[in-house]
Amino acid sequence: MDAGYGTMRDNVINLQVVLANGEVIKTGSRARKSAAGYDLTRLLIGSEGTLVSAAQPEIYQIRKEALWACYAMAPNNFEAMTTDVCVPLSRLAECISKSKQELDASSLLCMVIAHAGDGNFHTIIMFDPEQEEQRQEAERLNHFMVHTALSLEGTCTGEHGVGTGKMKYLEKELGSGALRTMKRIKSVLDPNDIMNPGKLIPPHVCI
Questions:
Q1: Are both 58 and 75 inside the same structural domain?
Q2: Does the model's pTM come out above 0.85?
Q3: Residues in the chain, pLDDT under 50
Q4: Assuming Cys at both sites, which of 17, 137, 159, 189 could form a disulfide with 52, CB separation 3.0 to 4.6 Å?
């Protein structure tokens, strides 16, 4: 989503979800805003499937097209590593400038493809999966972008999510206390750790 429409959280009205115990619940109404109880929708929409399984999301539909020009510019066997970071708007120019300088100096084909109006920008890094040094270079560029964003009071991901690839950055961004709180929430809603295990929360985090 771009600056005109907001993030996914801003565009999900409510959710019908399945809890780890099999119970189906609804998180809200179709009203655009509500002050009725805890905001379960916003909690769950960013959980990457680690708390519940979404059965029927209600979303404001927005046409969005993705441009994959990098694939046309690279050999057929190349793969794309996509990454995103987000920083305060006041630090955006600095973050893009530092990142682009590093990307341009790389031997890999890189392209910034962003809606930068909300401080979020994405990069596609093309590499040959059969060349380990190219994969490592792509990882290095991703690492550089993330640490640049974090040093500018930003986040390791504005839209793409944490998954497993960015778990290693969460403690630096959020602190150990926040991660323990997230772990406690998951232990209550998913005590047997069956909902997308191994994602989002680093495995070393203990309650």
A1: no
A2: no
A3: 1, 60-67
A4: 17
